[in-house]
Amino acid sequence: MNNEIFQQINNLAGHSALLDKTMVFLTDSTAYVAIFILLALWFQNGKLERVAVSKQYTAIYAVLSTLMGLAINAIIHSVYYHPRPFVTYHVHQLVPHGLDSSFVSDHSVLVFAIAFTLLLRSDSLKHIVLSWAILIGITRIYIGVHYPLDVIGGAALSFMTSFIVVANAKKVEPLAQFIFRLFRKVIIVIPFLSKYYHGAHREG
To answer: What is the model's pTM?
Structure first.
């Protein structure tokens, strides 16, 4: 089933140069879009300060969830090796990639950690970001470097880490306040960022 679904998606590659380039662009831009989303959350400066503070906490939780997920995935990769599709089968591989383990997908961990954090926090961008995360997961299969279960595994891992971080918000609070203090020091160097500083306020 895993390979069959992979073949169905990957076989779409190679028929349209425009679609191929679009999928490669989307997958290659993943990290940049992720950073943009996090910055957009942090530098929210709406009329309601409470909303701005909430979004900064969401950004912090998303980063923590991502780092936790990637760390766990590094452990998984160190103890379990699953060959990538292009190692085992003849596939439409649109980008070069190393021969490291296929399971779990780092890209999926990244995008779904952000998406699930926004969902659990009921952020206004949650549906847009989740749609983006799903699309990135599909691109990893389309370009021939991951199986569907690699993406699903990444999503499951990210949901777990996102839930743990959000559910333990009180334990994360000291770190959040430390980050706010660091940001305040940045403001000394870059004063125009002061309107985005809400560190003196705690969420809720």
So the answer is: 0.93
